[in-house]
Amino acid sequence: MLESLLPVNVLIVDDNEAAADLLQELLTLQDHTARCTYTAQQAMDAAAEERFDAALIDLTLPDFPGTEVARRLRSAAADRGPRLLVAISGFSEEEAAGAAARNLFDHHLQKPIDMGELSAILSAPR
């Protein structure tokens, strides 16, 4: 696995709690910090409380879609919202969203997430 040059503070938004918790553990092993949220509202509350460098957002959440989370994070004050938004989904990028989602997210990762690819995304200059 690739290691990031600088630690990143990551917001994880996924209603599959086991998957979110495992992803948090893997990111912590790479010296990142991560906070798990399991609903869109929890994600919005966390983003209001803490500054994140990146957000990994599941596209299908129980309360409202991940695309809406991304839209709200993008519209948040520029200095408060994460600069990097990554869609995570069981579907491929073509299946998961349309042009609207592609414009909201910087990257799309299909589950199960390839940690090497995620590490490369997190280590890229922002």
Question: How would you characterize this protein structure?
Answer:
With 126 residues, the protein is of the alpha/beta class. The protein has one domain (9-119): 3-Layer(aba) Sandwich (Rossmann fold). The chain is built from six helices and five strands. The chain has helices spanning 17-29, 40-49, 66-75, 93-96, 99-104, 115-123, and strands at residues 9-13, 33-37, 54-58, 84-89, 107-110. Strands 2-1-3-4-5 form a five-stranded parallel β-sheet, with helices on both faces. Helix 1 links the parallel strand 1 and strand 2. Helix 2 runs parallel beside helix 3. The longest helix has 13 residues, at 17-29.
Bin the strand percentage. 15-25%
CATH class: Alpha Beta
Number of domains: 1
What would you call the structural class?
alpha/beta
Q: Major sheet: order of its strands?
A: 2-1-3-4-5
Q: What do we call the CATH topology?
A: Rossmann fold
The string of secondary-structure elements, in order, is EHEHEHEHHEH
CATH superfamily: Response regulator
Which blocks of ≥5 consecutive residues have pLDDT under 50?
none
CATH architecture: 3-Layer(aba) Sandwich
Number of helices: 6
How far is the first residue's CA from the last residue's CA?
Answer: 20 Å
Helix content: 40-55%
Give the topology.
Blueprint: E1 9-13, H1 17-29, E2 33-37, H2 40-49, E3 54-58, H3 66-75, E4 84-89, H4 93-96, H5 99-104, E5 107-110, H6 115-123
Parallel strand pairs: 1-2, 1-3, 3-4, 4-5
